[in-house]
Every structure is written in C-alpha cells, then in structure tokens.
Amino acid sequence: MYCDEVWTGIEYQVAAHLIYEGETELGLQMVEGVRARYDGTRRNPWNEVECGHHYARAMASWSLITGLSGYEYSAVTGVIGFAPVIQANDFASFFSAGSGWGRFSQKQSAAALTATLALTAGTLAVQRVALQAAFKVASAKVNGQSTRIERLGTKTMLLLDNTVEIHAGEQMLIELKR
Predict the structure, then answer these.
(1) pTM
(2) DSSP 145
(3) What tens digit of pLDDT does each residue of 88-139 get?
(4) N or C: more exposed end of the chain, with fewer CB within 10 A?
(5) Is 122 exposed, middle or buried (0-12, 13-18, 19+ CB in 10 A)?
C-alpha cells in the first residue's frame, strides 16, 4: 500500500536539508514539485495526504522557513539572527521563538542595511542580534541607540548593553551603515 503514496514530509525535509547545505535552487525545485501536485486543482493544498489525511509529517515544510531565512535563536544566550539565502536585499519572513512570534524584514544596499524585528504576539528577550552583512560596519543603532558591534566570519553581531525585551506590537529597528 505504501508504494502508491508520495510522502511530502520527506520531500520537504530533503528540500530543507539541501537549502541548509547551500543547494538552494535544487531545494526550491523540490518544493515546486510538491506544490504542483497540491495546487488546488488536482489535490487540496491544505491536506497533503500520506498515511491518511492531515498526517503530521508534512509539517516538515516549516523547516523551509528557517532554512531560507537563516534564522537562529537561543533563549539561553539571548541571541537572535537571520542570514537570508534568497532575496537578501529585500527580505521578509515569519519567525517564531518560544515566548513570541512575529516578522523579520531587511533591506540592504551597498551603503546600509536596515532590519526590523516586529513582534506580533508574546515577548522576546534579546541580548545580541546576528545579521549577515556583506560589508564592514562602521556604526550600528538599535531602537535609535548606538550599540557595540563585532564581526564573526560573515556575520555582524550587535552586542546590546542590556537585554532588550520586545513586547507584542513593538519592534526593534536595526540600522547598519558603512
């Protein structure tokens, strides 16, 4: 019976793994194949059938968000970071942490990077922010206040003097300038 089934959860897992390994285009091609089968014309886009209806394995698709956004978070160290692998110059994505969730966005040019961490629900305690930055940073501001910065390989790490707690409806604005 299983020989007649397509396990989208496995396909999503492999696609996300390819993205994490730097094979973004190949991973996205796999996702396009799955979505073509569940396009609303042939099959229900909200019910990827495997081992019965509404099977949980297809939730592996959520790993695509973390893979494409380069999202990392540690509640223990207070570090949140993003390193988008697609559309990095004009990027936006959902993010979820244990205590809250919201939207991250960034716009990047040769001279600057502006990022916004907007919390929709809950709270988020942040001590450091890691961003992928292709240029050396001369100054950085978080919520209008200057902050210390470090370069860690290809990442720029913003070191906040105190833990910043963002609440639902609030946002953290980050400006990096050359």
Answers:
(1) 0.86
(2) E
(3) 999 999 999 989 999 999 999 888 889 999 999 999 999 999 998 766 665 6
(4) N
(5) middle
CA 31, 33, 39: angle at the middle one, nearest 5? 95
Q: Are residues 44 and 115 in the same domain?
A: no
Tell me what percent of the chain is helix, strand and coil, each rounded to the nearest 5: 25, 45, 35
Place of tokens 């698709």: 61
Question: Is 36 found in the same domain as 121?
Answer: no
- CATH classification at residue 159: 2.60.40.1180
User: What is the extent of the structural domain holding 17?
Assistant: 2-65
Q: Tell me how far CA of residue 8 lies from CA of 39, 56, 88, 176, in angstroms.
A: 13, 10, 27, 40
Residues 129 and 50 reside in one and the same domain: no
Residues in the chain with pLDDT values less than 70: 1-4, 134-139
Q: Are residues 36 and 90 in the same domain?
A: no
Count CA atoms within 13 Å of residue 112 on its CB side: 10
pLDDT at 29: 97
First to last CA, the chain: 60
Query: What are the angstrom distances between the C-alpha of 80 and each of 1, 2, 125, 151?
Result: 44, 41, 9, 15
**Tokens at residue 18, please?**
């390819």
